[in-house]
Structures
1.
Amino acid sequence: MRKIALVAASILVLSGAVLPKVAVARSPLINGQVTKIDESAGKITLKHGPIKKLDMNEGMTMVFRVQDPAMLKQVKVGDKVRFDADRVNGQITVTKIEKAR
Ligand SMILES: [Cu+2]
């Protein structure tokens, strides 16, 4: 019994120490700023820096689809944000967005 508790405790400690670093390394967020929100179309316009994985080698302002319409309620025009984007069904889509701290 004591051994099991010890193993459980070590797993908790290890996951706490290791997982956050893994999460950060896996999805480096892109810095951007909201310039327009179109809730009815489920789209957001973001001014953003380079996104190498999407072959955008320099910053630009462009329209993105959002994966979840609720994302458009989390931010407003003028907000500085950090976000992630990917090609989803051929459309460049914001998969994650948060206000920059
Ligand atoms: Cu772009």
Note: The mean pLDDT is 85.
2.
Amino acid sequence: MAGFGVLSVHAHPDDEAIWTGGTLARYADEGARTAVVTCTWAEGTVRAGELERSLDILGAGEPRLLGYADARKPESAPGAPRFLDVPFDEAVGRVVRHIREFRPDVVLTYDGYGAYGHPDHVHVHRVTLAAVEAAGYDQLYPDLGEPWWPRALYLAAIPRSVVVSHWRAVFGADPEPGQTLPGVPDDRITTTLDVGRWGERKWAAMHAHQSELERGASMTLLTGLPEQARAQLLGTEWYRRVGHTGPAETALTA
Ligand SMILES: [Zn+2]
């Protein structure tokens, strides 16, 4: 694992812990280099401080904040545009710069639905996809560092069966008929990572985001779960692997 690099790109402080915290902690313990880019919230805000503590717990280095505003919280970056409103090329370039600087083997971000539909998450997915593809081309963003090709991109996703089986425990009721549920069909998941041994670390990193817990953000729903159900949810992280620049293949493989 020595030298292997994992770069996780997220929308908000707390997502690194919620969606990829187990993966980051596991790979850091196994000797990999790990880092997190966070697209919204500016340095000097309470949540930037919480991010710093979370990254410390996960062993993922210093915050790499792009400093744009959260779609729904102008106070996240006073005077800065919303990440959603920044010209696409500018946003892609900011992520390209981090990819070229950190030189990850693997990049992590959310799937096309942003794991559960938050517009900032969906946007981060699109920007990261474009940045991973652009980072290797010396013709693109030539002033933003030496080209670098990550080997693969892993998109954090939730299998539909997990959503359905935990819905009642998390929300206290069954989904409404016709309600749009998060998650992807189970057979779209390519990688199920057992992070059970790192569940406590992930939970501790989530708790570093104290202001989110205090305002009753969605992760507080997990606090109310029976310990066994919570450990089960925290102990696994799911991904869809896309992109591959490994050994040449002579055919498309399913
Ligand atoms: Zn988020």
Note: The longest strand covers residues 33-40.
